[in-house]
Design brief:
It is built from ten helices and 14 strands. By secondary structure, the protein is an alpha/beta fold. The strands form two sheets. The chain has a ten-stranded mixed β-sheet, with helices on both faces. The protein binds threonylcarbamoyladenylate and magnesium ion.
Length: 313
């Protein structure tokens, strides 16, 4: 079974907006590539996006907003960000900025990072969908992990099958290449992903960029920034918490009252709770380690275990 694309009429966009508000997923066109969107503030919905993409790792997602003033509700702008948003938004430029305190975007959407990627897409369907939804929309490209980004609704349908319940067809995406990702959290603006807007175009507004940095490195660096006091080691595949250990439980067998990723053993719920519970339990004055009960290594469990094996959140 494959979800059939439906034309992106105002009525269908309204239906898509309602679906997103109720926690569902919608594939929709942007000017770059098709995105697989959900309510960025709904952790379960974000987990469902990772599940639909069958991604073995959690990667931070881009938060799609209508414009710069909407973005400023979620991230802290600096002068460079304002210049770039003024020059290129709406458009194919994604900015990485520090999250605001109290920002409602689910931790899973940013894979636990303290930064957020924001972008105001320049496509009438994406703009209408964002405005009708009234929420920030987290959306990776609407392809399965390891496949190329889709530029037509037919690509999305062929790749995601029925993993996405609604697919808005807005024709071929005009640019056909992903947005350029710029990290504005370091000393110098850095190009994280070359994309539809060239480095030269960007440099014309803000001067030279730091050289391309691999995401793995930035994520490490950012984690260090985000979790300065995060020290507790994780003990994996634990059946119980030893003396001085905090327990991160999973499933119905766990002791009552434990911090439980999912008391029913639901992997989507576990993914949605993962980063928040790791943060809660990271209390070095109280505990010496976090004992983590086994999580099945299937579906979303693979991404959860990948994150756990890499140690600190
Ligand atoms: O054109 C696009 O950007 C499309 C459309 C749908 O907007 N989206 C897209 O999303 O390509 P995705 O998930 O396939 O790629 C997002 C990129 C990834 O390279 C991710 O690592 C990076 O943005 N990214 C997101 N949040 C980040 C963060 N907080 N720090 C560093 N990189 C981040
Ligand atoms: Mg992608």
């Amino acid at each position: 079974m494959t979800t059939a694309p439906i034309p992106a009429t105002p009525e269908n966009i309204e239906k898509a907006a309602a679906l997103i508000r109720s926690g569902g997923l919608v594939a929709f066109p942007t000017e770059t590539v098709y995105g697989l969107g959900c309510d960025a503030a709904n952790g379960d919905a974000v987990a469902a996006v990772f599940e639909a993409k069958a991604r073995p790792q959690f990667k931070p997602l881009i938060i799609h907003v209508a414009d710069a003033s909407a973005a400023a509700e979620f991230v802290v702008f600096n002068d460079t960000a304002s210049t770039l948003a003024g020059a290129f938004w709406p458009g194919a430029l994604t900015l990485i900025l520090p999250r605001r305190t109290g920002c409602p975007v689910a931790e899973l959407a940013a894979a636990g990072l303290e930064t957020l990627a924001v972008r105001a897409p320049d496509h009438p369907v994406a703009q209408t969908l964002i405005r009708m939804t009234g929420r920030p929309i987290a959306a990776p490209s609407a392809n399965r992990s390891g496949r190329i980004s889709p530029t037509t609704a037919r690509h999305v349908a062929a790749d995601l099958g029925n993993a996405c319940p609604m697919l808005l067809d807005g024709g071929r995406t005009p640019l056909g290449i992903e947005s350029t990702v710029i990290d504005l959290c370091g000393r110098m603006p850095a190009l994280l992903r070359p994309g539809a807007i060239t480095e030269e175009e960007i440099a014309a507004h803000i001067g030279p960029l730091a050289p391309l940095a691999p995401l793995a490195k930035t994520m490490k660096k950012r984690s260090a920034i985000k979790y300065p006091g995060r020290r507790l080691p994780l003990r994996l595949d634990a059946d119980f918490a030893g003396p001085g250990e905090a327990l991160l439980a999973f499933g119905p067998e766990a002791p009552k009252g434990a911090a439980n990723l999912s008391p029913t053993g639901d992997l989507r719920q576990a993914a949605a709770n993962l980063f928040a519970l790791l943060h809660d339990l990271d209390r070095p004055r109280e505990f010496s380690a976090i004992a983590v009960m086994p999580v099945p290594d299937e579906g979303l469990g693979r991404a959860i275990n990948d994150r756990l094996r890499r140690g600190r959140p």
